[in-house]
Amino acid sequence: MTKELRLHLLALPLALMGLVVGVLLIWFDPVAIAKQQPTSSIARGSVGTPGPPVPLAVALTADELEVVRTLAPLGDPPDDPTNQHEGNSLAARLGHSLFFDTRLSSNNAISCATCHDPHMRFADGRDTARALGVGTRNTPTLLNVAHQRWFTWDGRDDSMWAQALEPIEAPLEMGSNRVAVARLIQGDSPYRTAYERVFGPLPPLDQNRIGGPRIPEAARPPRLDVVDMNDDPLADAWLGMRELDRDRIDRVFANVGKALAAYQRLLRDDDSPFDGFVRGLSKDGTTTTSPLSASELEGLRLFVGKAGCIRCHNGPMFSDGEFHNIGAPVPGGGPPRDPGRYEGIQLLKKNPFRAAGRFSDAPESSRAVISEALVNSPENWGAFRTPSLRNVAGTAPYMHAGQLATLEDVVEFYSTLKGATQLDHHQAALLEPLNLTQSEKDDLVAFLRTLSGSGPRNEELLRAPSGPLGPVLGQ
Ligand code: HEC
Ligand code: HEC
């Protein structure tokens, strides 16, 4: 058990308190109640029309069936109290527009959708991301992203809205800055209207206050991940601004993140063949919907049994949401260079947009309390978040730096641990070579391929909208 996990356990009573409050809030929220009524997640699935019960191609034991039922259905993502606008459909429409807007980048050519391509399951098919420069991490899918607890491979963000702000300013990604973003919202009348409807009036950006310096055209704070702060004119411009102006700009920037999060919350995929299969499972181990093939079922048995995948890839996201060092091979060989969770915690603690920060709508929520209580430890070095396996068949290549090209390669890795780095006694306890036979490997891959559905039901979510002020879109 990592220190972090132990802390989670300590924080459980607090989290439960938060849950009770959350449940009460939902209970009295007519919007939330209305939202629950029309579409039950059972009626929405596109696979698995019920038929007469048929026996499974490979019989599963009662124990296996019990574990299988913990993997589906996915259900609705949890609410994020730190973003009070997350369920707001106008905010989602604004975020939808921003997601596809290349003006959020310094060269006016890159949008979020450049790397999170809706037609590539909101990933990019590359080993590591490429935009203004070449990144060091693989682009994750955004389908079902609102179910995550920590964001990015190292979990350096504790909310989706805080995460959304990073690529906009990252020099290798979109290379823009928060003042330019505030100016974009202010200067584009549909954006301005949409923003003000959701978040209230924009602050003045152009007025020259008597005695006070003017807000520059472009500015952003010194980067959190760079020690050497020399030679960064944007940072100098930022540090030259009045604190009040910096705070106002930060607030607009945070709200842009909150709108982007409201859109991303709608990006769901919960109707995979596996979901259809679990939906039709009856107690006696027969199924009324889309039975899986013998090979897929053998793969499922291995997954929840002998191969031990379920130890980390568990729950309806097929992820424990935690961080492990599985020694995935280093890109290009050599010693591991990516500190993973170790640096993730350091960055989280410094981030003014974290759940406990002043731009959060619930700085005392259990989410925030858990983040504040995190204690870093050397065993976090080289650990990455267990990725969700939903949609995994469509999001090659794999691992945090895309170092494994196919699902076959991933299963081969778990079978032999060949090329594994850093397997000290702690990680060795987590993983041992599985020495799988060829047919077991084929079965595991066949099972992993049952975890992709057809994506968001509303196809409008997959393309740029006509602007931030059109009809409101549901999921
Ligand atoms: C240059 C390509 C690129 C662009 C542009 C980009 N992203 Fe990403 N995105 C990535 C990569 C790579 C990661 C993983 C980063 C890491 O782990 O350090 C990521 C991670 C994420 C995550 C976390 C997903 C998870 O499972 O934790 C979200 C959410 C996200 N991006 C949303 C956005 C939004 C919103 C935008 C636009 C404002 C955007 N991205 C722009 C490449 C990109
Ligand atoms: C000890 C926890 C643990 C166990 C056990 C485990 N995994 Fe993983 N898995 C991870 C972590 C952590 C990563 C990401 C590692 C990285 O990027 O460095 C990962 C990555 C993956 C990926 C790549 C996904 C992507 O989007 O890049 C697949 C596929 C996968 N695991 C499948 C499996 C299968 C199949 C098994 C059982 C044979 C298994 N895992 C067992 C923790 C685990």
Provide an overview of this structure.
With 475 residues, the chain is mostly helical. The chain folds into 2 domains: 39-74 and 269-340 and 382-451, Cytochrome Bc1 Complex, Chain D, domain 2, CATH 1.10.760.10; 89-267, Orthogonal Bundle (Cytochrome Bc1 Complex, Chain D, domain 2). 38% of the residues lie in helices and 2% in strands. The chain has 19 helices and 4 strands. The protein has helices at 3-10, 12-27, 30-36, 41-44, 62-68, 89-99, 112-115, 160-169, 178-187, 189-199, 233-239, 243-264, 273-280, 294-304, 341-350, 366-373, 407-416, 425-430, 438-448, and strands at residues 54-55, 286-287, 323-324, 384-385. The strands form 2 sheets. A two-stranded antiparallel sheet has the order 1-2. A two-stranded antiparallel ribbon has the order 3-4. Helix 6 crosses helix 12 (243-264) and helix 17 crosses helix 19. The longest helix is centred in the middle third of the chain and has 22 residues, at 243-264. The chain starts with a helix and ends in a 27-residue tail after the last helix. The model is unreliable at 1-46 (pLDDT under 50). One heme C is lined by residues 307-309, 311-313, 324, 326, 328, 384, 386-387, 389, 392, 395, 398-400, 407, 410-411, 414, 430-431, 444.
